[in-house]
Amino acid sequence: MGKKQTRSQFPKGFYWGGAIAANQAEGAYLEDGKQPSTADIKSRGFFGGLRRDADYYPTHKAIDFYHRYKEDLKLFQEANFNIFRTSINWTRIYPTGEEDNPNEAGLKYYEDLFKEAQKNGITMMITISHYETPLALIDKYGGWDNRKFLNFYLKFVKTIVTRYKGLVKFWLTFNEIGNASVVPICWDAAGIDPNSDNLQQRMYQAAHHQFVASSLATKMIHEIDPNAKVGAMIAYKTVYPYTCKVEDVKAAEASKRKEYFFSDVQARGYYPSYIWRYFEENNIHVKMETGDEEIIRQHTVDFLTFSYYRSRVVSADYEEPAEKTSDSLEGLVNPHLPKTDWGWTIDPDGLRLALNELYDRYQLPLFVVENGLGAKDKVEEDGLINDDYRIDYLAGHIKAMREAVADGVDLKGYTMWGPIDIVSNGTGQMSKRYGIIYVDLDDNGNGTGDRVKKKSFEWYRRVIESNGDIL
């Protein structure tokens, strides 16, 4: 048998582009028949809280992508994008979720957006549910732990996939589906109030309903548009034990499995054996209907996508000198790695490890669909924005992807997070900027909204032009 040639470059036809979420970019939150979603009652501030009486909601105005998408897509084309990932605001199509007929104005908006992208030579990747659910459904039925959500979701899926057949090549069923089990993001991912009683039970029941919904959506999409591909999307953080103490290694492995659970079900088609012990020890009783396991087994995803911003360090205990991360969600800070302005570690090598771990586990094509640096950008007196720190971050991670490709990983594409500055989901801030395109708005929504190319824009344009060879 001849020696197989290893690949040292990105494959021909590699997808390069950027990703946003509709609710963080569009604004126009009650225009053309749209009604509020779960994203629209998040007030400003770090995980700002769910309030109906706040003085300011960043998503209501956002960056007005709703009206300005043509100029933004033109900029993406100028940067050589051949793929763009966004989502569809559910409440633009079914304002309360319970309507029999969809809202034509909402359907027409996305049709125009996708056709405009096509005109610019850009392939569409659409997240069906990206951190928003009709608020009216949550108010009436609770969250995704109520099985009624399956039918509401599948009605939405059938409508949009039928309408956009031939306009959308890649569909993702849920954004970062594993966050249905993470506090406080369970609100974003599954409409579960993080202050609920019996929270663990509610979160994992919601996750089960999303697994069934995802499998039925996968079946439906394949039937309606045989040329479309359906993927799962998980949040992934490479996990390291804080020390080589056995307890820390065990804690790291347990943490990994909590993350893997969600991709295991969607990619392999069954609940992994390890999760049952976790359920038992945490008094979680997931209710399954007859046929659920068969549905999950028969309709697995075609590919796997994930977000990667940083790695995590896990310890069996949090004793000093370990430093907790600023947001206290992700365990401990790695003392060997630099940090962003928001205290997130910068770890490109962790991305190479992530790609290898996921490909070894599933042998499915992979996409990195979120990766980027949230930073405070300064506009110089001459109007330039010299974001060399962002260039360094992206270059390091693209280099890590190239190494993973050389390792044999089947990597199909890369969509950096927030190619244009958008409202941060976690903090509600505009000042936590990810883009290669600056948007002149501050944390209170003040400013011209003008788009300005940063130094990283031209750099990323050249990276894509060279298919990742020139960094």
TrEMBL record:
The keyword Nucleotidyltransferase does not apply. It comes from the Bacteria. The active site is at 370 (nucleophile). Transmembrane segments: none annotated. GO terms for molecular function: beta-glucosidase activity. Residues 432-471 form the GGDEF domain. One of its GO terms (biological process) is carbohydrate catabolic process. Keywords: Glycosidase, Hydrolase. The keyword Transmembrane does not apply. Signal peptide: none annotated. One of its GO terms (cellular component) is cytosol. Belongs to the glycosyl hydrolase 1 family. This is Aryl-phospho-beta-D-glucosidase BglH. The gene is bglH.
